[in-house]
Amino acid sequence: PQGSEQARAFVSAFLKRSMPRMRDEAIQDVLTRKAVVLEHHCKKTAKAKRRKAKGFTARQRRELRLFEIEPEQRRYTIFLPLHELWKQYIRDLCHGLKPDTQPHVIQSKLLKADLHGAIVTVTKSRCPSYVGITGIILQEFKHIFKIITKEDKLKVVPKQNNVFSLEIDGFISYIYGSKFQLRASERSAKKFKLKGTIDL
């Protein structure tokens, strides 16, 4: 350890090098009246920016054929268990479909429910060729339903200008496709308003 004299000599020599413009008297005055803080400025390291994982674009999804169902999988019987799961899901959602349940309560639940697995029928349409199509909904997009029929045919039915009906435990509900043009994820958060009359 250094003695007090050596320490004073070291400090004065250090201050002379650090503050060459100040005289010895001024340095001594600073030492007696103020505390000298020796600061060390460290270089700021740039923080690595977190990159958000980007999903596929619509073009990439089409090229990878992510949403296409293979022809050998287009069989009605394969998706019957999905329909049974959907019925149980709706029963749980509506707390049991009892005869005394108010229709508007079930209707409001179905408006926000996931329809994948539901059996629907096109009851009205501006295009007569769509009327009567019945099957299980395999995929729901913003503007279309993809339906597998009992004849193992995959039908792409637009929502626009079509009315669909679905039946569960004796309760029949109608879907006006023109007012239903939302993705399933968006529909669950949407507030639907009651309307008196709805046209195609």
| N-C termini distance | 96 Å
Mean pLDDT figure: 81
Within CATH, the superfamily of the domain at 72-189 carries the name Ribonuclease P/MRP, subunit p29
- Which class best fits the helix and strand makeup? alpha+beta
- Write down how many β-strands occur, each being a DSSP E stretch of 2 or more residues: 6
- Return residue spans where pLDDT drops below 50 for at least 5 consecutive residues: none
CATH architecture classification of the domain at 72-189: Roll
Q: Could you tell me the radius of gyration in angstroms? A: 37 Å
Short description:
The chain is an alpha+beta fold. It contains 6 helices and 6 strands.
Structure description:
This protein has a domain at 72-189: Ribonuclease P/MRP, subunit p29 (SH3 type barrels), CATH 2.30.30.210. The chain contains six helices and six strands. The chain has helices spanning 4-18, 24-33, 58-64, 80-93, 103-112, 184-187; strands spanning 119-125, 134-140, 144-149, 154-158, 162-168, 171-176. It has a six-stranded antiparallel β-sheet with strand order 4-3-2-1-5-6. It is elongated and about 105 Å long.
Provide tags for this entry.
6 helices, single chain, alpha+beta, SH3 type barrels, six-stranded antiparallel beta sheet, elongated, 200 residues
